[in-house]
C-alpha cells in the first residue's frame, strides 16, 4: 500500500525540502503549517507517519503530537527539533508517543532511513492488529461452536442415558423370567403376555415372582421398561395385589381394570 506522510512546519521551506527529499519514494505527502491545520488533515486522511517541527506559533509540535494521538492513534510520530529543545523532546516522548526525534539540521540519508524504519514498524503493528482481530473473531466463533457442541452432547447424553435405562429394565425383566422358566417357556410366556396385553389394552404389564406379590419389573404399552423409581412410585391398588396373587397361582396374565 502507499503510505501517507503528514509534514507539519510553519516554515514552508522546511516542508518543501522534505517533500523534495522524498519525491523518489512512493509516498503521498501532506503538509500543514500549524498544529490546528495538522489536526484537521488527520481528520480527513489516514496517515502512516507524522513529522512535526517543535517550535511553531499557536501550538508547539510536542502539544500537537500529544493531541494527534486521539485522532490518529496508530500513526508513527517524529519530532523535528534543535538541540536546545531537549526538554520538549523528553515531554513529547513521554506524552506524545513519538518514536524518535530528528535534530536540525538533519542528514538526508539519516532521515530517509528513519522514515523507512518508521513505516516498517507501522506495517508490523498494523499486521499485528489484523491478526489479533482475526484471532478474537475466531475465538468468538469457537466459543459459539463449543456452546452448540456442549448442548448437543448434553442432549445426546440424556438420550443415551434414557435408552440405557430402558435396556437395563428390559434386561432385568429377561433375567427374572429366565430365572423362573426355561428359555422355551419364557418365550411362550412372553408371546402369551403380548397377546393378552393387546386383547386387554393394558397400560402397564407387571412382572412378579412367586416369592412376592409386589412387581419385580414392569413394561408400558410402548415397550419401555419402567425404571426402579417409576416402579416404586407407581400406585399399587388392592386390585393389583389380587391380580398379582392370581398370576402367582396360575402363571398366566391377569387384567386389573383399565390402567391409566
Summarize the biggest pleated sheet. Answer: 5 strands, parallel
Task: Give the count of helical stretches.
Answer: 8
User: Reading side by side through the largest sheet, how are the strands ordered?
Assistant: 2-1-3-4-5
The proportion of residues forming helix, as a percent range, comes to: 55-70%
Label the structural class. Answer: alpha/beta
Uncertain regions: pLDDT < 50 for 5+ in a row? none
Q: How many domains comprise the coordinates?
A: 2
What is the rounded distance between the termini? 78 Å
Beta content comes to: 15-25%
Number of strands: 7
Gyration radius, rounded? 44 Å
Instruction: Summarize model confidence as the mean pLDDT.
Output: 77
Helices and strands, in order, run as: EHEHEHEHEHHEEHH
Which shape, going by the Cα principal axes?
rod-shaped
Amino acid at each position: 500500500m502507499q503510505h501517507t506522510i503528514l509534514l507539519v512546519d510553519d516554515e514552508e521551506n522546511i516542508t518543501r525540502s522534505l517533500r523534495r527529499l522524498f519525491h523518489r519514494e512512493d509516498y503521498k505527502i501532506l503538509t500543514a503549517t500549524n498544529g490546528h491545520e495538522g489536526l484537521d488533515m488527520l481528520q480527513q486522511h489516514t496517515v502512516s507517519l507524522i513529522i512535526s517541527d517543535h517550535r511553531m506559533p499557536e501550538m508547539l509540535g510536542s502539544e500537537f503530537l500529544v493531541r494527534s494521538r486521539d485522532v490518529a492513534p496508530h500513526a508513527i510520530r517524529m519530532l523535528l527539533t534543535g538541540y536546545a529543545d531537549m526538554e520538549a523532546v523528553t515531554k513529547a516522548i513521554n506524552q506524545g508517543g513519538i518514536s524518535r526525534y530528528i535534530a536540525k539540521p538533519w542528514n538526508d540519508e539519516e532521515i530517509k532511513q528513519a522514515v523507512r524504519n518508521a513505516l516498517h514498524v507501522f506495517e508490523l503493528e498494523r499486521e499485528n492488529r489484523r491478526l489479533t482481530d482475526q484471532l478474537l473473531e475466531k475465538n468468538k466463533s469457537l466459543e459459539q461452536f463449543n456452546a452448540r457442541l456442549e448442548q448437543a452432547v448434553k442432549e445426546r447424553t440424556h438420550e443415551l442415558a434414557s435408552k440405557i435405562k430402558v435396556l437395563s429394565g428390559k434386561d432385568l425383566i429377561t433375567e427374572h423370567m429366565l430365572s423362573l422358566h426355561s428359555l422355551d417357556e419364557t418365550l411362550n410366556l412372553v408371546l402369551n403376555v403380548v397377546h393378552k396385553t393387546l386383547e386387554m389394552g393394558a397400560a402397564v404389564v407387571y412382572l412378579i415372582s412367586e416369592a412376592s406379590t409386589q412387581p419385580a419389573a414392569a413394561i408400558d404399552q410402548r415397550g419401555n421398561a419402567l425404571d426402579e423409581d417409576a416402579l416404586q412410585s407407581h400406585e399399587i391398588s388392592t386390585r393389583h395385589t389380587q391380580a398379582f396373587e392370581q398370576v402367582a397361582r396360575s402363571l398366566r396374565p391377569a387384567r386389573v381394570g383399565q390402567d391409566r
